[in-house]
Amino acid sequence: MINGVLILICTIWIVPALGILITSFRDSQDIFRTGWWTVFPHQEYVVSGQIHVDPNTDLNGPIAIRGVPGKYTFEQLKEGVTLSDGRKLIWYGNKRTRLIEVSTLQWVGFSTRFTLKNYQDVLSDKTVNYKDANGNNIVRQGDNLSGAFLNSLAVTIPATVIPILIAAFAAFGFAWLKFRGRKFLFSIVVMLLVVPLQIALIPIVQDYTRLDLNGSFLGIWLAHTGFGLPLAVYLLFNYISQLPREILESAYIDGASNFTIFTQLILPLSVPALASFAIFQFMWVWNDYLVALVFLGNHHTVLTVALANMVGEKGQDWHLLTAGAFISMIMPMTVFFALQRYFVRGMTAGSVKG
């Protein structure tokens, strides 16, 4: 039962991601006509012939079709009529064409109509040309997601490394060093976990304005560091406080300083907890929209802001939106799969005493 539930949950998460991936490689015309699942073997109606309607036939009433029993109106044929033998009749174009396409249900194999054009269009800032569902030629300006991708990296990597380093030092101090006010300060850290970041945005923006930090990478690094430190300190404290006391006492007896113990013992032994928080912080910063919009604005557009702009400008351009969405998913997935072996160990550290 547990395995079945887990498989169901994984399937619910994987299917939409698979749909985005497949759609991002499909041509715009194919996306407008059929769903992404049609790239797999399936049955569909394939045009197998044509029937020309007699020029003298009145199209305003029931239409007699050569070789087809019964009569059908133009509206019915426009919607599509399925005959008893499995054939499907669809009127092609407008009334002037006087042409009916005959389709039969056939098995279709794997589709090989894939293209990299969608990714080329969203990654560059050049002009984009494609056809919409009605066959009209559409011209758009590229979104230059390659620049937004680099901006996201420039924001996320320092905003992940800086709080990890500070929190590791703080957690080591709270766990193993004795100083006045230690419990009180740690209680403040725990209380900060429940403070919504939204209430701090306006005061920080006012301070950044006076310090001329708005729109700068340094400003958003400091913001993400401050918002991420409480969780980082709490998580690392739970892990570091459970390390064997004998190891640290032996190091103290051998004359090792606190800094040496921290760098030579604590950091190597705390890799699972560090990796666990790195996954959380990286994904939170990478997928952040509000903080990036407030503190960076349009000075350095990150991926989340660029994708939001794409939804507003290109809401019907699914081939571009899916390509942009999958580009934004690449880095979080890479980081998670690279560090996921440490994830469970880091999250469960300190949860059991004794």
Brief write-up:
The protein has two domains: 69 residues; 204 residues, MetI-like (MetI-like fold), CATH 1.10.3720.
Question: Your description of this structure?
Answer:
By secondary structure, this protein is α+β, with helices and mostly antiparallel strands. The protein folds into 2 domains: 41-109; 145-348, MetI-like fold. It is built from 14 helices and 8 strands. Helix 4 (117-123) crosses helix 14, helix 8 runs antiparallel to helix 11 (271-286) and helix 13 runs antiparallel to helix 14. The chain starts with a helix and ends in a 6-residue tail after the last helix.
Whole-number average pLDDT? 83
Oligomer: single chain
Specify the helix fraction band.
55-70%
Dominant shape: elongated
User: Biggest sheet, in brief?
Assistant: 4 strands, antiparallel
Task: Give the strand order, joined by hyphens, for the main sheet.
Answer: 1-6-5-4
Name the CATH homologous superfamily of the largest domain: MetI-like
**What class, by secondary structure content?**
alpha+beta
Strand content: 5-15%
Q: Termini separation (Å)? A: 32 Å
Run of helices and strands = HHEEEHEEEHEEHHHHHHHHHH
Please tell me the total number of domains: 2
